[in-house]
Amino acid sequence: RKNATRETTSTLKAWLQEHKKNPYPTKGEKIMLAIITKMTLTQVSTWFANARRRLKKENKMTWSPRNKTSDEKECDDDQDDMDESQGEPIKTEQEFN
Questions:
Q1: What's the rounded Cα separation, in Å, for the pair 27 and 49?
Q2: What's the whole-number mean pLDDT along residues 34-53?
Q3: Is 59 left (phi over 0), alpha (psi -120 to 50) or beta?
Q4: Would the pLDDT of 26 be above 90?
């Protein structure tokens, strides 16, 4: 597994800065960003999920929560439930007890 470099993430951060009102890249934009950054589509999707989570945590959320279509839910559910530090699914309170 190769870690992202500052050069790689700067491209993703620049995209995120330009799209603060709607920080959800389309599939085509993700593909373009993956090619530019030499990351996989999964890595790009995970990076954006984690970046949105970080912004929300820092109360820098400037977009309204997105209602996903059923197609998008199937693709993104695995990504959105990953813990950024361990790469493991986040446990709900019920799962801990």
A1: 14
A2: 95
A3: left
A4: yes
